[in-house]
Amino acid sequence: MADASFTLDPAYQVGTVDPRLYGSFVEHLGRCVYEGIYEPGHPTAGADGFRTDVLELVRELGVTTVRYPGGNFVSNYRWEDGIGPVADRPRRLDLAWHSTEPNTVGTDEFVAWCRAASVEPLWTVNLGSRGMQAAQDLLEYCNHPGGSEWSDRRIACGATEPYGIRLWCLGNEMDGDWQVGHKTATEYGRLAAETAKAMRLVDPNVELIACGSSHDGMDTFASWDAEVLEHTYDQVDHLSLHAYYAPRDGDVDSYLASAVGMDRQIEAIAATCDHVRARRKSAKTITLSFDEWNAWYSENPADAGDPGEGYPVAPHLLENVYSAMDAVVVGSLLNSLLRHADRVRIACLAQLVNVIAPIMTRAGGPAWRQTIFHPFALASRYGRGTALRVEPTAPVVHTDRYGPVPALDVAATRGDGGEVAVFAVNRHRYEPLTVTADVRTGGAATVVEHRVLHEDDPYAVNTADEPERVVPRTGAGAVLADGRLRVTLPPLSWSMLRLAPGTP
Ligand code: AHR
Q: Which atom number of ligand 1 is nearest to the Cα of residue 72?
């Protein structure tokens, strides 16, 4: 059995955890909206057509912010199609996912759903097939009090008070040639800057996110980001990052080290932002919005996003079934976000329901938690307050993709009352890891909760018929004595330990 150690000291801080780190994403894609959050006629559906069983799971998941309506979908979306009487709304071809969009759910419905779910929307505007004017009109519709064409249209639709939507993405993955209306960095940078200026004139309170690189394998990775920032630096608040992880060509050890990839991507893009800041002699720091991240087995034909022939409504797309191993990886990716809490202000687990999602539904049937639901829900509930700087000493696992990586992936947070949450992943596939943590300076005295997600079969999954097959179980054997926490992590596992101050 190998040994690892680290020290937790409340003086060593990364920064305050922005609650928006626990965001997610609802795209008009596959069955995320239709048969996902919305299914009139379902036994649990309210009068508005939203499934209340799904709403309950969304609340339990602890999602704070939800990005909408895309994704690739937004780049050929006309937002005006989704307002007014539903019977009058057009059916449109969605070119991104080769589907038909019925427009039954649009802006007003999604705002109502966000309120029911107690989440803040993060709205994306179409800078692919459309541009400044459509973005400005949409913002006027949502946030202007009244007395203008679009705000009065909102009032006529029943919303007398403005929606006050604060967070806005200026397009989606505009560097990708798969995107409708794909642009060069210069074309996009100019358009994003001018759109941002117009949007701030409509509502000076908006927070704006420019599109960074779609992933770190893009040929233009980092140079796209630098060029876009040259145009938008003074106009935007955040730059976006996206990343999806899978065991490419069966390389499981590298997959288990995905958080190293996320760490490096965040640090590379933060450095790129700071390079532009230095060049421009600016006092402003651009922060990061990791607004799409997850495990996604896009090499599997069934998960790749091809709806086949025709333009179906709500086809089964990207319905990735997650294993215990995927949950461990998702747990470690959350650790990476916490380690960079000083720079990453927003992050969205992509997506929320049915499409590469923590929540699955069957039409007319149950909703259930995928394996990845669990580390997210526990991290969102307890990974709040201040992220602590943790520097573990650990044995090494060799990976083809990232080289040697520590077997222990760990992050920790401290709440105002001195309670500490430790999130620890043993990346080793076969060896348990004994961890000793020096917690003397924080005053931690008792272990109040110890949960472990580990399965002897790392490919075990949750299904409609067996929804509780993979869950975090109560851990055993954690000892906190004389300011030292000692615990053994099973191989390929994610654990959470909550420590409370006081008398042991
Ligand atoms: O989340 C699925 C898709 O992945 C999104 O639509 C797109 O932005 C990304 O490429």
A: 6
